[in-house]
């Protein structure tokens, strides 16, 4: 009698687990298409709301919010960063295919490290170019 009640209880738990999994799958199919767009909308709304509050606070304090002021060296920074990452990726490919080549072995650490190193060098060169430009602008005034 005891073993029979344990088996029924065990089967009941197993059936409940399957039932719960089915409910979760149905909820995923229903909730994800609803919650993802709502979350995206809330994120965009929050960004614009906070930006507007920040600008209003600056205006109240008598500051200029500098709306849509172009930054001249942004393209230089991104260009040098991407050139550095490209050079790092190319050098990592050359090293991986010639010097560090072992049959059946991949070496992803080389790729990530060289992309980061050359990307950092690109950002450093962008910083140096910005400083040189600012010094030149300061000496003109």
UniProtKB/TrEMBL annotation:
Record carries keyword Membrane: yes
Pfam families: DUF6249 (PF19762)
TM stretches of this protein: 30-50, 78-96, 108-127
Keywords: Membrane, Transmembrane, Transmembrane helix
Protein origin, superkingdom: Bacteria
Matching InterPro entries: DUF6249
Record-annotated DUF6249 domain positions: 35-129
The name this protein goes by in its record: DUF6249 domain-containing protein
Organism: Mucilaginibacter terrenus
